[in-house]
Amino acid sequence: MTFEYAPAPESRAIVDIKPSYGLFIDGEFVDGHGKSFKSISPSTEEVLAEVAEANDADVDVAVKAARRAYTRVWSKMSGAERGKYLFRIARIIQERAREFAVLESIDNGKPIKETRDVDIPLVAAHFFYYAGWADKLAYALPGNGNNGADPQPLGVAGQVIPWNFPLLMLAWKIAPALACGNTVVLKPAETTPLTALLFAEVCQQADLPAGVVNILTGAGETGRAIVAHPGVDKVAFTGSTDVGRAIAKSVAGTDKRVTLELGGKAANIVFDDAPLDQAIEGIVNGIFFNQGHVCCAGSRLLVQESVADEVIATLKRRMKTLRVGDPLDKNTDIGAINSAEQLAKIRELSDIGEAEGAGRWSPACDLPQTGFWFPPTIFTGVSQAHRIAREEIFGPVLSILTFRTPKEAVEKANNTPFGLSAGIWTDKGSRILWMASQLRAGVVWSNTFNRFDPASPFGGYKESGYGREGGRHGLEAYLR
Ligand code: NAD
Known about the structure:
The model has no long low-confidence stretch (mean pLDDT 96). The protein is built from 15 helices and 18 strands. It has helices at 56-74, 79-95, 97-108, 112-133, 166-179, 194-205, 220-228, 241-251, 276-288, 305-319, 340-355, 387-390, 406-414, 429-438, 473-476; strands spanning 20-21, 23-25, 28-30, 36-40, 47-52, 156-160, 183-187, 213-215, 234-238, 257-261, 267-270, 300-304, 359-361, 377-380, 397-403, 421-425, 443-446, 465-466.
């Protein structure tokens, strides 16, 4: 059962949301030449701000500003000097962490507990980490460092990011690009532009030279224009596999460098010798963290048949204690679904799961009347043929399958078009190592899940994309 907790809302007084925002180009906020759109709070449907939608002409101005800043200032500056700017940005983000956390929760719908303890600290950590690399790039590429290597930046990076970790995805893109001496034109997702715009203010506060970072708000058309602009040397995209495919086509035949971080359908594999209490926490964290809007979410639970009943019963008990509601309440475990569209997609796939014969279960929970909400949900009796076992739902919905032998677990885990992440829960170190060598996934967690560190590379196999972000590997994508 859930104990009644008194509400513990974080104050929103710390954030100052302006009624309207322009585009951040060449160090200043300017009016765009296109239309505008509204950013709404997914938990209340309140209109937060009117935001400019960059059109082709705006993209052109921003790319040219980035080029000027690249040739005249940023690529000429020593790595040590660039590093100082990145350290300064990291420190300002730490100083303004509460403001960023509250704004991210309001604009995205995710719980303050997560923005405060995960998103924003990781954002600062990324800037600190890559600040440290800026003057050590001679050691960034394999075999370099002692052969006089002097890797060079690529130029202007066009970067397009999704809505699930708005500021964190911005950090993953901007920190390594700037450390390597590139300049950027970045587009946040249309449902979550506000923290990127606050980051633009941080760039001003840090006295970052004008044009090094340009933030263009807008939707798919703006993203397409950035990717297609001939002045862009490098494209970095995180988002859906469909859009990733369109981007790969758009840059084919050009000499643009590309990294794509796309979708996933990770297997979280629980063996009968696993520490089950910990595994349950790992399962909950794997699929309900960030409402399941996580590309590497453990959305397929593979549980060994001999412990399946026990795992499912314990999981249900644990799910009854999850609190769904106000993202700004410090007790909230599961916040709002990011948009009406995403909610419709989750509902559709869940209904298909039920229609295809899987057993659907959610704990009783009172969902707020306004806003976009979906209860934590599990499906039992799922087979490989079910669409909910194959397609990314990107919501708080777990498909549970069973297996008997490690070999069968590997076959089922790898039977997916994706390959971003996987989890293994077992007492045996030898089994962890064997499984990790067999799983076709970019990240394999053992006896934990959804752990991120700026020093650790992240990326996919197959339809989950190509290229790595994070760690030393993340520098390779931004160096010649
Ligand atoms: P999406 O692909 O629809 O949108 C992502 C971004 O691309 C948005 O900024 C959007 O405006 C822009 N965009 C849309 N059409 C475009 C086009 N034709 N050209 C250029 N840009 C375009 O994805 P989404 O629904 O916002 O995000 C969810 C997806 O992102 C999921 O599939 C998830 O797995 C994936 N994701 C992957 C990672 C990773 O690191 N692999 C991380 C987070 C999310």
